[in-house]
Fold this sequence. Notes:
Structural class: mainly beta
Largest sheet: 4 strands, antiparallel
Strand content: 15-25%
Number of helices: 2
Amino acid sequence: MPDNSHWQANWVATVTNHGITEGGSSGSPLFNSAGRIVGKLSGGPSSCGAVAADKNDFYGKISYDWVTNGAAASQQLKPWLDPANTGTTSIAGRAACCSRLP
């Protein structure tokens, strides 16, 4: 794993056990305090049956994938999400209750 490309999320005990992920969760989002997606689950030993020391996961940083994930445009997010080079680095989402775009 390249330096500074992932966050390690360490799950803590809750009233009902631990907050953990299971197989099939890969790609699920990691949100920041503003509710924006900043990472995606890419691996880790977490599972219901894992011992406490293994209740963690690794989330790939969207900021790393923007232009650093590889040399080819197909390996980066910027060519897909900002093809006009507007410099926009984030956009606000919208609530599910709102009407759909035409």
